[in-house]
Amino acid sequence: MEQTDRESWSYIARKPCGCLVMAVVDNPQHSRDVAKEVGKAIRLGETVSRVPSQVVREMPWKCAKHREAKEGEEIGAGDREKTPRSSRTRIVTIRSRIEYLTGSWTPYSGCLHGSDICATSETCWARSMAHRFHRSFLPSFHPEKWIGRDGGWAHFPRAAAHIGVAFTGDMFGDFNLDVIGEKAWEMAIKEILRCVDSRSNQRHRFYFLTKAPQNLARFNPWPQNALVGLSLTGAESTRQEHEKLALLSDVQGGRIWLSYEPVLGWLTLDWPELAWLVIGAQSGAGAVKPERGWIKSVEEVAERRGVPIWRKNNLVKALKIEPREERP
């Protein structure tokens, strides 16, 4: 990632129609992960090529056919909604083990946060799962998750659902600007948000979560059915906590929420206006057992402000306390 744009090259993969489905920087520090992504694309029959990274950043994600509507304009939500149901792709979300979600959606995966940003980066469950199943954990978008077979918006089952978006990575981390490229990164997230905001998906709630709130306001206004969350553990410095929480106030449109998980220390009580608070404990070997005082202090503040609280099962078991499952 220390390469300059002039020196940097990337591998891209395209579908037969020309839609871009993969773009990864040819970085020697992550050569194994790059090789896995390229090999996977070749096995799927996609066209792979190596081009300068600067070229990738100026490329559209979709081919000309899927970018153009009947009158030569970009396909909008209204045009997509007219697509016959039989020709659209139904996204069957993976059932989530996170109890406040009914399903998980992965239009993006991967993360490069270090311990300075993420206190649990070395024991990250998503990274462990990727390595366990020999998958790349390089930051990457998966356009086939939000674009239908004919270029219309992909959609979800009929029943209203609580859907976690890209919980196997941090879609808003600063590292994406280097690995993916700022223009391509912004374009992809805006496409995902248009899918979330499409008429057929209004009945669902989509949960976003990040440790990089400084990039959230770039996508204002957020869809009304989006819950935009910040992840804190109490291991951050008070200054870091204040700065990150303050940035949540810049989010417009969607409701904001706070994930206090895993609980590793005291959390500052100076919050912006929140719609929801989720609290969870660390699990696995060497897990830090949270202190009751840490939990009590944040719950008291949330109760005074009328913020709904959800205690995750791992916290209930760790402290042997009553379950609490409130939603916004």
Q: Name the shape in a single word.
A: globular
Radius of gyration from the alpha-carbon trace, in angstroms: 20 Å
What oligomeric assembly is this protein in? single chain
Mean pLDDT: 81
- Helix/strand-derived class? alpha/beta
Low-confidence spans: 1-6, 69-89
- Specify the number of helices: 9
How many structural domains does the protein architecture include?
1
Percent helix: 25-40%
Element-by-element helix/strand order = EEHEHHHEEHEEHEEHEEHEH
- The total count of strands amounts to 12
What is the spatial order of strands in the main beta sheet? 4-7-8-9-10-11-12
Question: In percent, how much strand structure appears in the residues?
Answer: 15-25%
The rounded distance between the terminal residues' Cα atoms is: 40 Å
Main beta-sheet strand count, sense and barrel state:
7 strands, parallel
